[in-house]
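Q: Predict the assembly, please.
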Amino acid sequence: DAGITQSPRYKITETGRQVTLMCHQTWSHSYMFWYRQDLGHGLRLIYYSAAADITDKGEVPDGYVVSRSKTENFPLTLESATRSQTSVYFCASSDHEKLFFGSGTQLSVL
Amino acid sequence: GQQLNQSPQSMFIQEGEDVSMNCTSSSIFNTWLWYKQDPGEGPVLLIALYKAGELTSNGRLTAQFGITRKDSFLNISASIPSDVGIYFCAGQLGSGGGADGLTFGKGTHLIIQP
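A: Predicted assembly structure:
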């Protein structure tokens, strides 16, 4: 079934470890996004990508790295996880008008 | 950057009641989007509005793009238990796939009391 999928669904890690969250879409959308959702802050944009090999910072990019070697994949890496990065992470893709979200990854950094 | 003020923050209503929520901004937007998020899931698009004054319905949901282009309203008629969730508004400046100027409100938590 076409759509946008994220993995893992849940992840627990320790401070200082590297973590990669995966995102895959089957619509061939050019644009892809990573958001984090925290109580009191709503959805905040971390990084986005307009096409393969093109990425740009969003509102809260510090501590995160992204890559887009293929149109359909947009992984998000936390190079050295911190407790403040405990959050729910959503990947999204866009057809130039609307955003379509994945089901999210709940990340806990202990 | 732009900020959206979404209100109310939460609503406690009885099943069958009508619901109204809104978003206001100090900036003009060219597109308004309304999303709903069920517990444990990502936001799902409900309604998209593209022109000032536009009124669009999707079943029991009706949304309007304010004339000033700085606000939008979402109404839900005759609420049912599955309407529970968080509703987000989002304003978009351009048409660059959502990359330029898409700003989200902080959400309205809708809770339906039996």
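The two ends of chain A are 35 Å apart (CA to CA). The longest strand of chain A covers residues 42-51.
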